Amino acid sequence: MISLVYSEDYKKHDDPHHPENKERLNVIMSALKNEGVLDEVDVISPELASREDILRVHPKAHVDYIESFSKKGGGYLDFDTYATPDTYQIARLSAGGAITASELVLNGYKSAYSLARPPGHHATSNRVMGFCIFNNMAIAIEYLKEVHKIKKFLIFDFDAHYGNGTADIFYQDHDVLYISIHQDPRTIFPGTGYIREIGSGSGEGYNLNIPMPPGSNTQDYVYILQKILPPVAQQFGADFYFVDVGFDGHMDDPLSSLSLKDDFFEWIATKMMEITESMVLILEGGYDLNALSRCNIRMIEALKDNKKGTDYYKNYYKNDLKVSDETKRRYKKIKDMFSPFFKL
Questions:
Q1: pLDDT-derived band of residue 325, with 50, 70 and 90 as boundaries?
Q2: CB under 8 Å to 114, separation ≥6 — which residues?
Q3: CB contact at 8 A, 3 and 43
């Protein structure tokens, strides 16, 4: 049973000349309607995140600045992150979408997908960055810690860009395992997310990066994720699972140089359902509108139909003949780096 968390108000944060604009949600929702998916899933309105919720992650001076900047008419907060007069409130609603989705999973849904914007995984505690205002997932995690006393969280992020904000917020937290597969940071924003960035202090070993070479395809991703995700998840033993959903690794996306096809986004949904019985998914990137709409359909249909463990996927990816030698080398490097923490 899957629910979608969505509000038309998310479109109020918009700059039509920017790649992160309201058309991203327009094409997703239109595709879901045209394919009849909206008749088969529950669509839930998000609750607005309170200031208390936001302040568990972001300092008051930072939150006040974003509120004031928006009220004065908005503009560019940094070189690629914009605000409108509505952005402060809509960013709170986006964070609230992550909290609402979390509550839905706690109340029995197998998966809840927050179709919210602005996105969040680049936002650090005190800095907007990479189209992101507040860190929606971090806000939901701190809410779950405080309100529901949930302790251990696993985050899997497959956006093409490293979620530097999420990683930074939990970098010293051994109760939050952050796993990110993304394009090699030497070739893409934000320029971090190397294998050697493994966490620090009590969080050492709990920030696991899988940087992939430009041109990496579905077989490369499946090969390395099959070897890392299931064993690490089993050994960590999370109480709650989050998935940061990015469609910008698609071969048609203008903001990355990866070569994933539509089938990856269906496959990763099936794989996550094999790993955990329930999860919250949060929309991040994806900027080719045709690929964004198609791949959301593939992923949501897999979640809706509970396609885990199908023979089709087991047979389709049973060999690694199309996996690059570089992908295999990177797996070996990750295995060696994390040998003190996880058995891979």
A1: very high
A2: 5, 46, 94, 97, 98, 100, 101, 136, 280, 281, 282, 283
A3: yes
> What is the distance between the alpha carbons of residues 61 and 165, in angstroms, rounded to a whole number?
18
Mean pLDDT estimate for the chain: 96
C-alpha dihedral over 231, 237, 240, 246, to 10 degrees?
-20
Interacting residues of 178 by C-beta distance below 8 A, sequence separation 6+ = 155, 157, 163, 166, 167, 170, 206, 207, 208
Q: How far apart are CA 179 and CA 181, in angstroms?
A: 7
Pair of tokens at residue 22: 């309201």
Q: Is residue 129 part of a domain?
A: yes
Token pair for 152: 């251990």
Residue-wise pLDDT tens digits, 277-286: 999 999 999 9
Q: Strand runs (DSSP E) across 139-217, as ranges? A: 153-157, 176-183, 207-212
In which band, very low, low, confident or very high, does the pLDDT at 124 lie, cut at 50, 70 and 90? Answer: very high
122 noted as active-site residue? yes
Residue 84, in any domain of the structure: yes
CA distance 267 to 308: 9
In a domain, 342, yes or no: no
For residue 243, what are the domain limits?
A: 2-337
**Single-letter amino acid, residue 169:** I
CATH of the domain at 227: 3.40.800.20
Q: Which two tokens stand for residue 193?
A: 């997310």
Q: What is the count of structural domains for the chain?
A: 1
The string of DSSP codes covering 85-110 is TTHHHHHHHHHHHHHHHHHHHHTT-S
In a domain, 35, yes or no: yes
Distance CA 192, CA 257 (A): 16
Task: Out of 13, 58, 122, 250, pick the active-site residue.
Answer: 122
- Give Dmax (Cα) for the chain: 57
Lowest mean pLDDT among 66-70, 274-278, 319-323: 319-323
Percent of residues, the chain, with pLDDT higher than 90: 94
Percent of the chain clearing pLDDT 70 (strictly above): 96
Residue 105 contacts residue 279 (beta carbons within 8 Å): yes
